[in-house]
Every structure is written in C-alpha cells, then in structure tokens.
Amino acid sequence: MIRESGMAEVQSIGAGATNQAIKAVAIARSYLHEEGIDIVCVPSFIDVAIDEEERTAIRLLIERR
Amino acid sequence: MIRESGMAEVQSIGAGATNQAIKAVAIARSYLHEEGIDIVCVPSFIDVAIDEEERTAIRLLIERR
What we know:
Two copies of one chain form a homodimer.
Chain A: H1 2-5, E1 7-12, H2 15-34, E2 39-50, E3 53-64
C-alpha cells in the first residue's frame, strides 16, 4: 500500500491490537527501508461506533517521509 | 523535550507499555499541534538487556516533521 499510494491507515482498539499495529509498522519500516522508502507514523485518537457503542480507537496514519 | 530539541525517544517492553507510549504520543501531538508543531513517530525494534536477559523492546523516536 505504501509503495503504491504512499499512505496507509490502521485503527486499533485495545493494548494488544495497538501493540500489534505498531510492531507491524516497525517490520514494514525495515523492509521498505531496504527499497529506499522511509515511513513514519502519525498516531491520533478516533471515536468509532461498534454495536451502537462508542469506543475510542487509536488511528495510525502511515506516510512516506 | 520536542519544543527544545525537536526530538524525543521512548522505549517500551510489552503490549501495555507500548500502548501507553503511543497514546502519549497522540496526546502530545494534539497539544503541540496547537502551537504549530507537527510530530511524527518512527517505530523500530531494539534489543535491551535487563537483568542479564535479552529482551526486545519497541523504540519510538518522536521527531518534528
């Protein structure tokens, strides 16, 4: 996704999911680095409705630097 | 720290700590944004020795964009 559009987005709810997401970014970062692509991530909070309940998720925007 | 040196670093071990760290970045990001400062984070893996045991930590480098 980063290679094609230069951007990706991941949303996670809960510590386990957020941890997995940030690890995925670290892994992607290392192999994209080999191709000369440098990515950074921009974390923010986002409210999402799940089963009519409001939850706060972490939104990770991944962008080329 | 970001205001003074333009850079900060956080290391975390475990899902809970990493989740806290990324939430801290999201919070810092929102108030620095009000001052016109845009920060991004660069996650990577790092091996650290704790009690002579090797552990893999997540290293979050926080930089001004």
